[in-house]
Amino acid sequence: MRRDEQYSEYVSERLPTLRRTAYLLCGDSHRADDIVQAAITRLYLHWRKAQAADNLDAYVRRILVRTFLNEQRRAWISRVRLTGRPAETPTPPAPPGPDIETQELLRAALQRVSPRQRAALVLRFLCDLPVAEVAAQLGCSEGNVKSLTANGLTALRRQLGDRHPALAGGSES
């Protein structure tokens, strides 16, 4: 029973962060909930191995990102489509920063970049992870992360044009 208690305590504490990260990856609160549910289910199945990890948060974040990327690869036909409109659920609280219009503009633009670029951008800039850790999370080289990040930022700049001065120029460091 101790194992289940540790798992429950960990998930309860990290759930808001996991949900916010999933929302930033997919842009839909319902899909974010599904991604988080699948990730924490997988975490439960591998809880012993997860506890032995050097960095449990990084291990769980990797499960979450891979769950998102795997979902993106699935064929559209295999997705369940509900008819009617689901009940509205509140959007996860946004971190302090730009105004609502700018946040929505950036969120919409972020949804139009490829899933791997989006994952790299979210992990690098919103989760504030170093290149090496993003590479480990995505299962690719550091050079690939830099490329995904640079190409993602270029795509965002192209979409936003003059509407967002912070992205108007400069390069990713």
Overview of this protein structure:
- Belongs to the sigma-70 factor family. ECF subfamily.
- This is RNA polymerase sigma-70 factor (Sigma-E family).
- It holds the Pfam family Sigma70_r2.
- Residues 12-76 form the RNA polymerase sigma-70 region domain.
- Keywords: DNA-binding, Sigma factor, Transcription, Transcription regulation.
- With 173 residues, this protein is mainly α.
- The protein has two domains: 1-74, Rna Polymerase Sigma Factor, Chain: A (Orthogonal Bundle), CATH 1.10.1740.10; 98-173, Winged helix-like DNA-binding domain superfamily/Winged helix DNA-binding domain (Arc Repressor Mutant, subunit A, Orthogonal Bundle).
- It is 67% helix and 0% strand.
- The protein has helices at 2-26, 29-45, 47-51, 56-73, 100-111, 115-126, 131-138, 142-160.
- The termini are far apart.
- The mean pLDDT is 83.
Produce a short descriptive summary:
The protein has 173 residues and is mainly alpha-helical. It has helices at 2-26, 29-45, 47-51, 56-73, 100-111, 115-126, 131-138, 142-160. The model has no long low-confidence stretch (mean pLDDT 83).
